[in-house]
Amino acid sequence: MGTATFGTNAVDWEDRIQFDRLRTERLARLKRQLHESDLGAILAFDFANIRYMSATHIGTWAMDKLIRFSLLTRNSDPIVWDFGSAAKHHFLNNPWLGTTTAEMDADPHAPHHGAVKPRIESGARAGISTLRGAFNPNAGVAEELARKIKRELEKFGVQNEPLGVDVIEPPVLFALQALGIRVVDGQQVFLNARSIKTQDEVSLLTQAASMVDAAYDQLYQFLRPGVRENETVGLVSKVLYDLGSEYVEGVNAISGERCSPHPHVFSDRIIRPGDPAFFDILHSYNGYRTCYYRTFAVGSASSAQNDAYKRAREYMDRAIALVRPGATTADIVKVWPKAEEFGFPDEEAAFALQYGHGVGLSIWEKPIFSRLVSLEYPEVLKEGMVFALETYWPSADGIGAARIEEELVVTATGCDVITKFPAEELLVAGQRFFSINGPLPLLRSSQSHLNTPEGRGETVTAGE
After folding, report:
1. In-domain check, residue 100
2. Considering the chain, what percentage of its residues have pLDDT values greater than 90?
3. End residue of a domain, out of 167, 194, 221
4. Confidence band (pLDDT; 50, 70, 90) for 98?
5. Lower Cβ count inside 10 Å, N or C end of the chain?
6. What span, in angstroms and rounded, lies between the C-alpha atoms of 464 and 457?
7. Residues 251, 381: one domain?
């Protein structure tokens, strides 16, 4: 299947994304990582980790709530405790969340004294965390959560082994520790499992990128003087949702003088003739994300902006040429400029401008590419990794900047680029303008010279 794309519907006449296989292979990878670790179980509160483990989803409104949680032990399948009626929905509609036999309960209807029967429990259960502290601490919500987890650890015989957790609220951490559970960092188990994508994950990521291709096409046609940054966010969001996006996480729309330094947030600025404008489109298709920058000039581009774009593209192309199995993140960042070369005092201050990161169920996964860490702690690139590489360069006039990002799939012999909207050269968007002498040039360093003697081609003598 590779990096092919399809329609968003399921059909019987073509082998497309197979979601049963996706769920099975993800869980198998996670179990393998757990068994290779020294942990007895892993507990997830992070939305992406819960989805990877259990293939459950209740809407993006819950992503920052830390209200739901799931557990995987060495000796069990996933158990998900979810918000309100979501647990009942999972029980009815998620058959891959199996059942387990609980401790023996007395049967009051047994024909003779002492008869017992096993209690069958679903992998989908009701449960809730502290609502980020909104529950009264005296209500004991954190303590009840901890008791639920301890019961399962004991049931599956891993109560004396470390429990790996991805992210956790302090009251929950303290409640687990009070029950004698040794809590350690479990995030690496999740991220190591997620770093290599299955073929269905690659297809979903490619499909997500194809939707952004379409959004950029609409955006290119829409850009013109008078458009505000926030309007471009609305346009892109509509295109993506119309195409079937699950969640538009953000559209980073930056124009004009706001390009340098990069503020990382859109505003209501009105775009003007000759402005640079760059965008980052982040959305989710069936959980799989994009992080996808493109830069345009509106109406025309200055020489300084064009030069900045060429520089950013050169750094991108050098990096892509090095991507193959066995290469490292250090190999990639070595071809990028040092922070001091583009106006920053150190790598921390310039972080995420010359940058790379894994893309999957979240936008920043393993591996990470940055001079801040990669030279000293390199990570090896492997077939099946999917990541984004980002380059940035400020224009010499101190106004604009260029930002380019490509998403790549590491193949057996190199890589495939799955972000297809043209970015080889700086694109000029907006209407073409014509003077009496024909179309105005798309490369224009300024406008003020047109009404000077020099601009009119007149001879100027000394002293005039």
Report:
1. yes
2. 83
3. 194
4. confident
5. C
6. 15
7. yes
Residues 137 and 114 in one domain: yes
E strand spans, 32-144: 41-44, 69-73, 79-82, 99-106, 116-122, 124-126
Would you say residue 4 lies in a domain? Answer: no
- 352: Cα separation from own chain's centroid: 14
Beta bridge partners of 410: 415
pLDDT at residue number 116: 53
* Phi, psi for residue 84 in degrees, rounded to 5: 50, -130
Give 100's DSSP letter: E
pLDDT band at 106 (very low <50, low <70, confident <90, very high): very low
What are the backbone dihedrals phi and psi of residue 310, each rounded to the nearest 5 degrees, phi first? -60, -40
Task: Kindly report, residue by residue over 170-199, the tens digit of the pLDDT.
Answer: 999 999 999 999 999 999 999 999 999 999
Average pLDDT over residues 261-290: 97
Q: Given a cut of 70, is residue 103 above it in pLDDT?
A: no
The range of the structural domain enclosing residue 148 comes to 19-194
Both 188 and 152 in a single domain? yes
Quickly count: other Cβ atoms within 10 Å of residue 321's Cβ. Answer: 12
Residue 61 vs residues 32, 65, 67, 448: alpha-carbon distances, Å: 31, 8, 11, 50
Whether residue 131 is found in the same domain as residue 205? no
CA dihedral 46, 51, 54, 55 (to 10 degrees): 170
Q: Are residues 155 and 214 in the same domain?
A: no
Q: DSSP class of residue 256?
A: G
Cα 64 to Cα 134: distance, rounded to the nearest angstrom: 13
The two tokens of residue 159 are 């109560």
The string of pLDDT tens digits covering residues 372-387 is: 999 999 999 999 999 9
Q: How far is the C-alpha of 46 from the C-alpha of 357, rounded, in Å? A: 18
| The predicted structure's pLDDT at residue 456 | 58
The 10 Å Cβ neighbour count of residue 213 is 18
